[in-house]
Design goal:
MetI-like_sf; MetI-like fold; 70% helix; two-stranded antiparallel sheet; UgpAE/MalFG_permease; 1% strand; globular; single chain; mainly alpha
């Protein structure tokens, strides 16, 4: 028994050390740093200036930061609804016995293989361009002049265009997850429902959705993590200076830590402490969503 304990300690020690070094220490340091003014992340502790909750007060006093919270909520909520609905439709269709399922599944997932930078560039340059973009060409061909003249990348429309492009790329990922969940449901349930006279809609609402609660629960958590960490798309749609239509908490944190101007006319000093405060708030957001999802969707209801 003692030998087994020693072997357990030997095998667990590298993993525990890696966890403490890579995750636990940075987390504690970030939380601690959020209560200090720290000019750069490389400053030693002697240069840290204690400000208490001053960093948090400054964040919520900033209109740009508050707008970033609004933007990320809209991406998470409205974008999540759109992605999940479209993904559910595709997953139900592809699991209903259509031929060529593997081909369509691979085609839908393809945008996830391409890097986010390349995808954003494709949308900005080749889909949203007001001169030769895909939408402009299609609407012009259909004779919809007003739609063809729509300025997708103008300040007023940037957020909608960015969210549309991002959601398009994320649909395929959740299609695969939902397809796996649907295919796991025993076929006997659907056959019994058909014998009882249940139509497709009844089968979907009474069998598919209840038995996919676990999959949907995990998907909501994953969507929340990726949405709150929204960064690359925002930087690609506003490469020079942050715009109110594209700013997100992650971009705001980047501006504070690495010095990109918060507004074109208002350069700020670096403040890694405030950036750490943003990171703490983002972590709390994810924990809050995780707790809410666990409360609303309970595992005890998931029974076959």
């Amino acid at each position: 028994m003692k030998r087994d304990n020693k072997m357990t300690v030997i095998f667990l020690t590298p993993a525990l050390l890696s966890f403490c070094l890579v995750f636990l220490y940075p987390t504690i340091r970030t939380l601690f740093m959020s209560f200090f003014y720290v000019r750069t992340v490389t400053d030693n502790l002697g240069k840290w200036e204690f400000v208490g909750i001053g960093n948090y007060i400054k964040l919520f006093s900033s209109p740009m930061f508050r707008q970033s919270l609004v933007n990320i909520f809209n991406i998470w909520f409205w974008g999540g609804i759109a992605v999940f609905l479209v993904a559910l439709v595709f997953s139900v269709i592809l699991t209903s016995g259509y031929k060529g399922k593997s081909f369509y599944r691979a085609a839908i997932y393809l945008p996830n293989v391409v890097s986010a930078v390349a995808m954003a560039t494709m949308w900005i340059q080749y889909a949203f361009s007001s001169k030769y973009g895909l939408f402009h060409s299609v609407f012009t061909f259909l004779g919809l002049e007003k739609a063809a003249a729509f300025q997708w990348t103008s300040p007023d429309n940037q957020f909608f265009a960015m969210t549309l492009a991002y959601c398009f790329g994320m649909v395929g990922y959740y299609v695969l997850i939902f397809m796996a969940g649907i295919e796991k449901i025993p076929v006997d349930y659907f056959e019994a429902a058909r014998l009882e006279g249940a139509n497709l809609f009844k089968q979907f609402t009474k069998i598919t959705m209840p038995l996919m609660r676990g999959v949907i629960k995990s998907s909501i958590v994953m969507w929340s993590v990726t949405s709150i960490a929204f960064f690359i798309w925002s930087m690609m749609f506003s490469p020079l200076d942050p715009d109110v239509g594209t700013i997100t908490p992650m971009v705001y944190m980047y501006n504070l830590v690495f010095g990109r101007n918060l507004t074109p006319t208002d350069p700020r000093l670096l403040n890694a402490g405030a950036g750490a405060a943003v990171g703490v708030l983002m972590t709390l957001m994810i924990i809050g969503v995780f707790g809410l999802v666990n409360f609303l969707i309970r595992d005890k209801k998931l029974q076959y």
